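Page 42, continued from yesterday. The earlier attempt failed because a stray header line got pasted into the input along with the sequence. Redoing it now with the clean sequence only.
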Amino acid sequence: MTLLSVPIIDLAPYFGGTAEGKAEIAKQVDEACRSIGFLVIMNHGIPAELIARVSQLSRQFFDMPLTEKRKVDRPRQDAVRGYSAVGEEGLSYSLEEAAPGDLKESFSIGPSNVPNDDYHRGPAAGPHFEPNSWPPIDGFREAYESYFEAMSDLSRSLMRIFALGLSLDEPFFDDKIDKHISMFRVLSYPPQREAPLPGQLRAGAHSDYGSLTIVLPDDKGLQVFNKAGQWVDVPQVEGGLVVNIADLMMQWTNDQWVSTLHRVVNPPFEVASTNRRQSLVFFHQPNYDAMVECLPSCLAPGEEPKYAPISSGDHLTSKFVKQTTFGGTKAVA
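This time it went through. Structure tokens are written below.
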């Protein structure tokens, strides 16, 4: 059965630890990932207090004057760190689709407390362990780092569910994500007091780049493109987190799972001038040297892999530079 809307899945049976519970959740997740690539998860274990604290501190940051936010600007185009202003990124360019810049601003961090060794600091690491920048807001760094760690733990559990759903050993992905290069970005979509340009959205249509993404939006607007060719709303569920698989997971599965196009649409005209939206987004990305190639369980006899092997780090850098340079039409800083 092909799902045309985003399902809601309660993870409690998986975290209950029984073989039967894990198998049932893995089956539901597998169906969602094959059909639409999105799901909403419940009973995920992320404390509501942590979510509320990060959300409040993020609003405090985005309320600062632009000159103050600019003091923690992204250091360069290939580094997913710091502040990015409205219109400075175009997600559609990651798919070679031209459009005006997205109507959002963001603040991003990566891993903290990075070891000072060759793996993390050597030339091969590239921009993936770039130091984080922090605004002078009490409690901001502590809250963001706590959220990053909580999302990392949840992502590891989700990757184990993915492994079971793909008929692999539960810890199959563990050694491919134990030094992950994930990013936590808070996206702020300010009120629209002027009409958007033709084709300009809060976030243009795109797929995500890594293994999976965990999203907590505070308002509607997120839409996904299903297999029937329809844009459908992702449900807003109190206490739920939105999860979608991303490009590397689709490549790992030889397109058996779908990294689905999604976007954030503009609010209705009558409320656009007052509508503010914020989303907490964790982009889970495997170790930079993890090679992504077709999984044995996803290749039928006589079938060929659809993708050449690629490292996680090379894939991420290529996609993000397209996003921040508008497909190379804007100079790299």
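Notes: Residues 140-165 form the longest helix (26 residues).
Reminder to self: strip header lines before submitting.
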